[in-house]
Amino acid sequence: MSYPYQIRSLEQYRTDHQRSIQDPEGFWSEIAEHFVWKKKWDKVLEWNFTEPRVRWFEGAQLNITENCIDRHLADKADQPAIIWEPNDPSERTRTITYAILHKRVCQFAQVLRNNGVKKGDRVCIYMGMVPELAYAVLGCARIGAIHSVIFGGFSAQSIADRLADAQAEFIVTCDGAYRGAKDIPLKSVIDDALVGNQSVKRVIVYTRTRTPVSMIKGRDVWWEEEMEHAATQLEQTGSVHVPAEPMDAEDPLFILYTSGSTGKPKGVVHSSAGYMLWTNYTFVNVFQYQPKQVHFCTADIGWITGHSYILYGPLSAGATSVMFEGIPTWPDAGRFWDIVDKYKVNILYTAPTAIRSLMGFGTEPLEGKDLSSLQVLGTVGEPINEEAWHWYDEHIGKKRCPIVDTWWQTETGGVLISNLAGITPAKAAWATLPLPGVQPILVDEKGAPVTERDENGMLKGNLCIQGPWPSILRTTYGDHERCRQNYFATYDNLYFTGDGALQDADGNFRITGRVDDVLNVSGHRIGTAEVENAINCHAGVVESAVVGYPHAVKGQGIYAYVIISHFHQDAEQTRKDILQTVTRVIGPIAKPDQIQFVSGLPKTRSGKIMRRILRKIAEGETENLGDTTTLLDPGVVKEIVEGRG
Ligand code: WTA
What we know:
seven-stranded mixed sheet; binds 5'-O-[(S)-ethoxy(hydroxy)phosphoryl]adenosine; eight-stranded mixed sheet; Rossmann fold; alpha/beta; GMP Synthetase, Chain A, domain 3
């Protein structure tokens, strides 16, 4: 067996889980022995949640790219590491073997060095889903630069904010990116983000779409020229190999920005050793990966799922990972199934929103597609409804593939709660049991463990985790206090997830959704405060309040109540202008689905917006709006209900 720490039975799951809790240091150090270290650790774990301070494998040194690439060269040099499927199915696909990956990552590491990037420097990566994005990410890791990947759907303003927050001096981008029928001019967005920016020294531009770009002398360079130059340099050394920088176990590997309940995204920081261990361990165990299987995670590398389960998890396990540039519905709704058929995909990992959207096309796009290679299905990003779960099970898995419902977050680095494919029981729409090393607990508002079961025998509460698993976030970049406040201050000595959950009598967890002001739109986390700030940027807007409402495909839709000044009477035009403003400030992913113009918002006497009422109205509720007597002006509720239409 190639992964000695792969759990192979329910019984073993139980023993491993128990041992991981009783003796975390013994448990994880044994697993850590199966990785490549430049220097072993002095201490396995040290932690407290008050600061918070979490240190795994203190004293150890490693480089994650040696674990993801170099160690596979002995026996898997010619095995595909990444199979790349282009947006346009008629374009040539690319197969990147571990040998090629090694060569390209080293070459790009050299490019970064040539351009003055040093260990610890922040490199912002804003690219489409091309193999070069993988080279860029791993090239950073090779030399110890901290990558901060920004999803291609974010606007110039969002990028500018993130560049400033991370104090990034380097950018890697593309001229443009293909997404379905669209062509997104990435470099031009970067140019907008850099207006007035004094700190960015270098922008490296990879050619993908041949969209005309303006290259600023002294600042912008072409990927292709830089790579060629690096290749010539490396040739002179007689080797394609660039040594991997020794990194301390706790050195940051990357920053990834995510939304919280305040208006400003936070830069979640992950460490090198703990993150490596966890993505590998969860990949091998949750999906029950077997050597030579083809794994297809449909996420974008701009999100944590892509980081952990397209790149680091699979590559550290020596797997073959499919990377798809396009979208599930272009050129038609059979695209995922074509890819499964074409590459004989064994593991398919996608999001409920994609399943629901494809479900809407019926089974016709499945006709003639051979899905018999599939062995394991996975879902992530939001609660999956039972209807979608059963459709996935029946039409995609043909009732013979276990479905893993994986619950986790950007902050957790990898999966924390999930069944293990075919090993621990699945339960439709339930994430089920915690991975070894994870101790979830449901608490009430005051932080007391929930012990009373409801009429269905369920515990219901706010989901927290006791104690640190190896890939827990270490800080929020540049603002440790914010990390403490957000995750460790709500409840004493617990990591608070922001999610609500149920637990059945067998210990299974079902995640019910966010309990804070964060929306989950098509699996993308969006803070209501961020959207409000963006809407309020529009000159005609006096005030706004944003809530989520159930949306058949997206899971949650964005509903905005907006007060506009009396100078803006053309409602239709204003609506379009607001959408345009949000696109400018955050990006198209945050555009409200519904905008309702109102003359006032329901507020308490202390001026707090009663979102509970707004949520109910957005959900279509007109009668039972709860107690409205504490409102400053109860009349406003009636007007809003009538205006909902
Ligand atoms: C939600 C994505 C129910 C949850 C990996 C969490 C889920 C947020 C599931 C994190 C699941 C993720 N079932 N809800 N299987 N997976 N979520 O940071 O609300 O983009 O807090 O990480 O997605 O979103 P993020």
